[in-house]
Specification:
InterPro entries: DNA-bd_dom_put_sf (IPR009061), MerR-type_HTH_dom (IPR000551), MerR_fam (IPR047057). This protein is mainly α. The protein is built from six helices and two strands; from the N terminus they run ααββαααα.
């Protein structure tokens, strides 16, 4: 890293990327972000490459990738031979996981909506279909 280019403080980088300072330090400890140069004062000094890499990490997290998956994506982004194909495969895998989660949440939503519809909203707690469903023995269902 060129010291003339490495002129951003950790606070400036955090503000530009929209992450907390502690998040940047965490990514450094986890090896997702290279250790920055240090100024004579001991303060970290970052360049535009760090800003780009942090944006990459943040956007990948927003898409649901885990830190381990992001580590793989970062490595693949530098692989000129198989990088794009492998990145596409990782994205397809992430999409499949998200679709499974959506299907499960849809089942939960539909079940909850059905319980709400069947509940009169008055009467004794013992007669409430929502409460009965929550305490029901799963083996009996």
């Amino acid at each position: 890293m060129n010291t003339a280019q490495a002129s951003l403080t950790i606070g400036a980088v955090a503000k530009r990327v929209g992450v907390a300072i502690d998040t940047i330090r965490y990514y450094e400890r986890e090896g997702l972000l290279p250790e920055p140069l240090r100024r004579a004062s001991g303060y970290r000094s970052y360049d535009e490459g760090a800003v780009r890499q942090l944006r990459f990490i943040r956007r990948a997290k927003d898409l649901g990738f885990t830190l381990e998956e992001i580590r793989d994506l970062l490595a693949l982004s530098a692989d000129r031979h198989r990088g794009v194909k492998a990145v596409k495969q990782r994205a397809q895998q992430r999409l499949a996981v998200i679709e499974e989660r959506i299907a499960e949440l849809t089942r939960v939503r539909d079940g909850l909506a059905q319980m709400i519809e069947s509940c009169p909203g008055h009467g004794s707690p013992e007669q409430c279909p929502i409460l009965r469903a929550l305490v029901a023995d799963e083996s009996a269902v």
